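Hi R.,

Here's the chain you asked about this morning:
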Amino acid sequence: MGKDKTALGYIGLGLMGWPMTERLLDAACPVTVWNRSRDKIVPALEKGAKEGASPAEVASNSDIVQTCVTDGQAMEEVVFGPGGIAEGAAADKVLIDYSTIPPDAARDMAARLKDKTGMRWIDAPVTGGVVGARAGALVIFAGGDEADIEAVRPSVEHMARSFTRMGPQGAGLVTKLCNQTVNACVKVVLSEMLSLARDGGIDGATLPQVMKGGSADSSQLQREAPRMVAGDFDNPHGTAYTIHKDLGIIADFARERGTAMPVTALVSELYRLHIAKGDGGLDSISIFKLFDRA
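And here is the predicted structure, written out as tokens:
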């Protein structure tokens, strides 16, 4: 699969999938697209993508099929449902799934797809949000065969700052669960910190610069705290719904392995409360609203 002639497919052009696809189109990669809601592929078609009538047709027309869907059930339907990827799969094709789904479910689907069609599977969840996707600066954690990962690397690197093999199938997703544990918990801690600053008479907007380089500094402090103070919640880089979905996967995975995660469990319940208040579609940093008395 050569860098310039590789036929690519992309299924799931949502919040993350569209900017990732746009990066591929801007790099003049041939891309066939499909999305459950057709209106979401129109911008890709306007930039030169081809439309697949179904996931099966995308797979038939592609050397590498890429997916980014909501959850494990959506992935099951896209791969094995009527008109699914499996119907257009073959042993010389590779599927890269950028979704965050349960690692055990991904391993099961990968084994079934390979047994049925010979098509190989790489789990490759991403972090970096919409901003990272637009900039081609995503961090991608990969699980799968090393040779398969190296074969797809030239195409993936149009979208990524790093693309790291973490181990066999499922390892990329386990790494993403570790990432999301920190990601979600830090958002809540930042919310508490900013509410403490407010109640103590400190302007929270000054804290990222003042704390820069100190022991409490982090990229999230620098990036998210100013947006929290400004109430920049309506143009999500990643929604509260999505992070709560990821926290549910973390809880199930940890419970099955006997891993105690009391802090993460509390954070999950705070997001559940936040969503119950009607704010699930806002950016995940809007968890600050639970603490904000303004």
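One quick note: Strands lie at 8-11, 31-34, 50-51, 64-67, 94-97, 120-123, 126-127, 138-143, 160-167.

Cheers,
M.
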